[in-house]
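Q: Start with the shorter request: fold the first protein.
A: Done. Sequence, then structure:
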Amino acid sequence: MRYFEAAVRHKSFSQAARELFIAQPALGFQIRKLEEELGVQLLVRNTRGVEPTEAGALFLARASKLLGDVDSLKQEMSDISGPVRGRISLGITPSIANILAVPLLQRCRRELPMVSINLVEDLGSLLTEWLLSDRLDMALAFSVPPTLGLSSKTLVEDSAYFISKYKKGNSSDPISFKQVVNEQLILPSHPNRLRQCLEDQAKACKETLNVCLEVQSPSTILNLVRNGFGSTVMSIISGQSLLRTSALNARLIRNPPISYSLALIRSDSSPLSKAEAVLQQIIEELVETTIKKPAREQA
């Protein structure tokens, strides 16, 4: 089953053979033997490599679940019998990676030396999809809507701020959402979670956002704001390390406020392993010391 799953995933016998450290003829022989035992053709060759037949697609779905169960069982037995070990794929959004990636990996190196951490940085919407397809074990993302098959633990509630270029005499008082929508805004494009929150709030208020530029990178957005291209809206968590400059002015948005949560999300398809439990504890402690505590001190 593993040979077949690897061949389908790579769409190539040669790449699957390299991953599994076996000779390509041996891989092909084992898959043909599997087809003979089942009495159906599972794969077809074409110009794009190999693809599953209808029977192969059905077999792949069942085989992937069985292989996942076997891997989970092996991990559970390993958790019981020895030190914490294993491999964890953790998804993280760019703004949170900017704050947590370095201290997180430093803690993991000290406290989980036998656990391989695969850090995947991307948009929250993509991280959610990858959790559902078991490409990730856990993810840190903002305001993920309730999703069947996923469990979510809120770590901190965040507020949105209006960020503009600093000018002498700028007010630091809260600003209304209606004032914000009339400004020229530099925002991430869809499907960014904050952008969606702003769009939803604007629609509820019968307003339209005045978006002059769409940029994904928080650091690039703030650099554009410093250079007078427009203003932006950003959570204080996302901009925590980037806002430490006199060239920017931050004002809390009110009437109504824009708030959303940072959550740790995981798939319900398998139980929490010992390694994942330790990693979750590390993440929660880091959120407390690097995000919550500085926010309380600034308040």
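Q: Next, the second protein, separately.
A: Sequence, then structure:
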Amino acid sequence: MKKAPILIPAGFILIILAAIPAHRYLKNSPVTAAPRKVIIQAPEGDNLWNRGTAPEDPWKAIEQIHGHVGPWNVLGWRIGQRALEQFDTYWGRHDLDITVYIPLATPYSCMADGLVIGTGNSIGRLDIKLAEVPKMEMICVEVSRIGSDAEKILYKPKFDYLEKILTAPEEDIHALSHECFELEDKELFDEERIQ
């Protein structure tokens, strides 16, 4: 007489795998390999590792990378452009260290994509980082040159402007994005040099 196959629910297999120490089923995985020395393979400056080019049309670049254009990502782009100018560098050199202090939620985090598009820096290259702050009033962007703490600039978006774009109805987003491209820097953010 033929026996019926034993059916095991998929969740049961996951429970069994969770109970097995990771080193048993990840035996040859790089995750379990001995720690390795970190080698910086993509240094800043003009070199083989920094071959990107600045977007010709920032509006299209923001839309393509972020999915839509909004005042938060345009604000990030504007701060990024100002930082390039003040540190006398250009897009894609990866010679700036940028930390974005924001509540870790949208729309605040959209600023980070704007900074990436505005500077050519990259979260994957670790030259742009996110740091959490509890309130919108604390939003700022800290920029310094990699390898030098001699000069840091803190860019603090104007609180009134942040409130305006945070509370705007969805149908105003397009117009607010255009406005953000056109306003003077001093209408969008303050700058503070930190020595």
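Q: Describe the second briefly.
A: The two ends are 85 Å apart (CA to CA). The chain has one domain: 58-194.
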